[in-house]
Specification:
- This protein has about 400 residues and is α/β, with parallel strands linked by helices.
- Helices cover about 55% and strands about 10% of the residues.
- It is built from 16 helices and nine strands.
- The protein is globular and about 65 Å long.
Length: about 400
């Protein structure tokens, strides 16, 4: 009898989990979220299925209508955007007086916030003032983006998006986990300031993405398309377009690497090479758009004296032709080669200067000329014209600028 009861109980639990699994597969959601809910359903008998059921969209479990912000779970900020901030004995900081509007979105005067925070005598209060200013700006940005946007807050991350609550929370958890993994992978050079939250803004579409980016870039000129960007203009944060987490994750890994390395002011090729390699290590290599043979042919046909100087100066990363792709690829390969001796590489990265493309640091640490290394990788004889030549960069940029 006991055996029959046990079999019947197990059969019931299996039937419940199978039913929940079918309901989960039927919802219109990201693959990652469906997988998370299915794992939850099978992790703990009955309770796991019940928890997964509560995370299904209401329309998928026969519930009533959504009730708005009142239903948002713990971690989402429901408070209104403040008009002023008060910390310590300093005068209040007015948000309207120190905020402009670009493309309909608020842009805080970060220098004014920094000056207000610096008026605090206590270092802890200065950090708190900056954090409150950033949080207040995010709340104003949330309101400007529309009622479907919400701010999720954890101890180490802010995520501003229109993502489903469970997806936003999972994204924040991924940001926190990625911070830890980057510090492990880039030990000795990665740095996240203590107490600083990472900020991720996920916009809904390409129009919103480039509208936001335009507030930080000149109005004229052509700029390469991207799926994500780290913006370090007063308030370090990174930006991505809405997609499922499998698409956002590489962007987070890439842009957070820039965040962790921003204290070094690296040459752009070194910064991007580290970001691409770290992205591939943490999130995997994305689908290849070209075969290795095609990339080799493109590299050999593209790079010349003028192009390699654009690479060392960082200009080639903003090209709108194949030079953009090839710059990231060359940076990835160079960093991969140099980082084989990690202890030596950390010394190189810690002393590389953007002003000379890292040339002096490479000579000191590796006893190597960067131009000769690039020639070897691109199957050319060593050529002194390929070494970083900072004196030519400004003149070349001026010549290329529109009259």
């Amino acid at each position: 009898m006991d055996t029959l009861l046990l079999v019947a109980t197990l059969a019931s639990l299996l039937a419940l989990n199978a039913w929940i699994t079918r309901r989960i597969w039927a919802i219109d959601e990201t693959a990652l979220r469906r997988n998370l809910l299915i794992a939850m359903a099978w992790l703990v008998p009955f309770m796991g299925a019940l928890i997964a059921w509560t995370h299904l969209p209401r329309s998928s479990r026969g519930a009533g209508k959504e009730t708005g912000d009142a239903t948002l779970p713990h971690g989402f900020v429901a408070e209104t955007a403040p008009a002023e901030l008060a910390v310590g004995a300093a005068p209040a900081f007015s948000l309207p007086a120190n905020m402009d509007t670009t493309q309909g979105l608020p842009l805080l005067d970060w220098q004014a916030l920094e000056a207000w925070a610096s008026s605090q005598d206590d270092p802890g209060l200065r950090r708190e003032a900056l954090a409150r200013g950033r949080r207040a700006w995010l709340l104003h940005l949330r309101d400007a983006l529309g009622p479907h946007f919400h701010l999720y807050e954890s101890e180490q991350a802010w995520v501003l998006s229109s993502l489903e609550p469970v997806v936003a929370a999972a994204t924040a958890a991924y940001v926190v986990a990625t911070r830890k993994r980057i510090q492990q992978v880039l030990a000795g050079i990665a740095l996240f300031e203590a107490g600083d939250r990472s900020i991720l803004l996920v916009v809904d579409d390409e129009e919103s993405y480039y509208g936001y980016v335009s507030g930080y870039y000149p109005e004229q000129g052509e700029f390469a398309f991207s799926g994500g960007m780290f913006i370090d203009a007063g308030c370090p944060h990174f930006l991505a377009k809405r997609a499922d987490l499998s698409a956002i994750e590489p962007v987070i890994a890439h842009e957070m690497t820039h965040n962790a390395l921003s204290h070094l002011d690296l040459p752009r090729w070194l910064d991007e090479g580290l970001a691409v390699n770290t992205e591939r290590r943490l999130a995997g290599a994305g689908p290849a758009t070209h075969t290795p043979q095609e990339l080799r042919r493109k590299h050999l046909a593209f790079w010349g004296e003028a192009e390699i100087q654009q690479f060392w100066s960082g200009e080639s990363f903003f090209r709108t032709d194949d030079g953009n792709l090839l710059s990231y690829e060359l940076a990835r390969i160079l960093v991969e080669q140099l980082a084989r001796d990690w202890n030596a590489f950390t010394r190189f990265a810690s002393s590389a200067r953007r002003e000379d493309g890292g040339a002096e640091a490479a000579l000191e640490v590796f006893d190597a000329d960067l131009g000769a290394l690039a020639c070897a990788l691109l199957e050319r004889q060593p050529d002194r014209q390929w070494s970083p030549a900072p004196a030519t960069w400004f003149a070349a940029a001026q010549a290329a600028a529109p009259a």
